[in-house]
Design goal:
Blueprint (H helix, E strand, L loop, with lengths): L16 H12 L19 H9 L51 E5 L19 E5 H7 L12 E2 L5 E4 L12 E4 L5 H14 L23 H13 L4 H14 L4 H4 L2 H7 L16 E3 L7 E5 L4 E6 L5 E7 L5 E3 L6 E9 L2 E9 L1
Antiparallel strand pairs: 1-2, 3-4, 4-5, 6-7, 7-10, 8-9, 8-11, 11-12
Length: about 350
């Protein structure tokens, strides 16, 4: 439906580490960097965001299949496993008109996942649809400038289980105990790749921004250590979904630039591997096997030395199976899965990792 990755779009992205990050910035920025091909991003108005959302953020993945309904896909209110508590429709009177927003389900507006105050409301950041998303106005206001993170003791929980509370300060989420905003698992990878995009696209401006707990004040690493580790793990735990791919393609038709970390998720590791606190997620370093893979029958075996929570997702990011596996009871029934490619998310007390499963 929308333009795909142009031929040779990433041909100049040949480096590693922070040099690769700068190369990607040159590909997606609004400057003529003498690249071949050269794509310069286009700045739209703040009001244009609502028009962009009608292409990029329509729910055809969970509750609906008909794009003509124009039901908003809001990461803060979407319930992937069932009916949403409320929904917004583009073009309705629920668009923010300066009123209401005193509870969920009244109005939707534009959520700057990187707070507007960080970059002082400057353009092109303010109207960049890659990181400014549609959201429930009330939840947007409750989050305010709270950084993203994980909490075990929420002080506020919204209808789709998005939470606000003190940072849980354990394993890969160690190092920050102030209030954090935690989206549901379904969209954690989306948020992570949005942040990787932002600190790449606006690399040259990062040192001039105001203070923000998620940023370290540098143009290279850009993300402060506790949040880099959190976002990296979210990126691993919640792989790129078809919804993200479609959104990236749609925004490309409007902004003339792309999110490289959706097009090529391995860029994240290539850039930040050397500064990750990988010891905080030892599960990623453990040898966990899934066999046979490709699977030709109705069962696979999970080779593990510890108890695991196992979740299987399809390419749309929809959770299809959720079970617990132990070393003694490590058979997984996949009879309900059709032939295709799936993402297996494996979680233990040591951390989380993901693997690919193919069923023939």
């Amino acid at each position: 439906m929308f333009a795909q990755i142009p031929a040779n779009y990433y041909s100049s992205a040949t480096g590693t580490g922070f040099a690769l990050k700068t190369q990607l910035k040159q590909i997606i920025d609004n400057v003529d960097d003498n690249l071949s091909p050269e794509y310069q991003s286009v700045q739209l108005s703040y009001g244009d965001l609502y028009d962009t959302y009608e292409l990029s953020d329509v729910d055809i993945y969970y509750d609906h299949t008909d794009p003509s309904l124009k039901v908003i896909l809001d990461m803060y209110s979407e319930i992937p496993s069932g009916a949403d508590s409320y929904e917004y429709v583009y073009g309705s009177n629920q668009q923010d008109d300066g009123t209401l927003g005193t509870m969920e389900g009244q109005r939707f507006n534009r959520e700057h996942t990187i707070p507007n105050s960080v970059f002082s409301g400057s353009f092109p950041e303010r109207s960049d649809a890659h990181f400014v998303i549609p959201s429930d106005k009330y939840i947007n206001g409750q989050r305010n400038i709270t950084p993203y993170g994980e909490t075990d003791a929420p002080t506020q929980t919204f209808t789709n289980q998005t939470k606000i509370g003190p940072g849980r300060n354990a394993d890969y989420a160690s190092g920050y105990t102030n209030t954090v905003f935690e989206p549901i698992d379904e969209f954690k990878g989306d948020i992570a790749r949005i942040y990787f995009y932002f600190v790449t696209r606006y690399e040259d401006d990062l040192t001039s921004y105001g203070s923000y707990p998620m940023f370290d004040g540098s143009s290279n690493q850009a993300l402060s250590q506790p949040f880099l580790d959190i976002l990296y793990n979210w990126h691993i735990q919640d792989p790129v979904s078809q919804r993200e791919i479609d959104r990236n393609n749609a925004i490309f038709t409007r902004h003339n630039n792309r999110n490289p970390f959706i097009d090529n998720p391995s860029y994240v590791q290539s850039i930040w591997q050397s500064v990750l606190s990988t010891e905080k997620n030892s599960l990623q370093n453990n040898e966990i096997t899934i066999y046979p893979n490709p699977a030709t029958g109705n069962n696979v075996t999970i080779g593990t030395t510890e108890s695991l929570n196992v979740e299987i997702f399809n390419v749309l990011g929809q959770k299809l199976i959720a079970v617990n596996i132990t070393p003694a009871k490590n058979k997984l029934n996949i009879q309900s899965l059709k032939s295709g490619v799936y993402i297996v998310k494996l979680k233990s007390k040591q951390g989380t990792t993901t693997k690919k499963l193919i069923k023939k």
